[in-house]
Design a protein that fits this description.
The protein is an alpha+beta fold and 186 residues long. It has six helices and nine strands. The protein is 26% helix and 24% strand. The strands form two sheets. The chain has a seven-stranded mixed beta sheet. The chain has a two-stranded antiparallel ribbon with strand order 6-7.
């Protein structure tokens, strides 16, 4: 299967290894990340609002074969369906006052192709140097010699992590799960 919009059946379910237990209550670090909007986003500038950061390993591209081993890596597959679900629910996040950001270790040029192809209405931030990942001690994994961020979602209010969703599975339902949590706290 090479369509990055589709999830194959029988994907292995990632297990909670406890790698995110330390995150609730932490402040976002004082750093900037490049955005697909052609700007740098200073994370502390988010101190006045509500933000959702969904982290994903890497997105695929149409016509580029997805390695079979990728589908067998728990939590790896599903970046495009997850991104599109956030697109489809973007207006609901905005109504709740939440700004959505995708985050991966791919550079902004690669991410921009995903944004353009899928008409994503939110910014994707590049953590290609793992500045945010390392500052927060986010879980990573290696695939074919490349370090990637494990799939997780952070709800941040006034630059402080309020809720962590980890592991995220299935990825195409993550936006709905986060929305339900946000609605339940009001």
């Amino acid at each position: 299967m090479t369509d990055p919009h589709e999830l194959p059946e029988n994907l292995p379910v990632p297990e909670d290894d406890g790698a995110c237990l330390h995150l609730p209550g932490q402040d976002l670090p004082d750093l900037e990340l490049s955005s697909t909007a052609g700007r740098r986003v200073h994370l502390r500038d988010l101190s006045r609002g509500l933000a959702v950061f969904f982290f994903y390993p890497r997105s695929g591209r149409p016509g580029v074969p997805i390695p079979a081993a990728w589908d067998q890596t728990p939590g790896a597959r599903g970046c495009t369906p997850q991104s599109c679900a956030y697109r489809d629910h973007h207006a609901e996040f905005r109504r709740l006052g939440a700004t959505v950001f995708g985050v991966s270790s791919q550079d902004s040029a690669y991410q921009l192709e995903l944004v353009s192809r899928n008409q994503l209405p939110y910014e994707i931030l590049s953590d290609a140097e793992f500045l945010l990942t390392d500052a927060l001690q986010l879980p990573t994994f290696e695939f074919e010699g490349v370090r990637l961020i494990k799939r997780l979602t952070l709800v941040v209010e006034k630059a402080r992590i309020k809720k962590v969703f980890y592991p995220v599975f299935p990825p195409n339902q993550n936006a709905e799960v986060v929305l339900a949590w946000l609605k339940g706290r009001t």
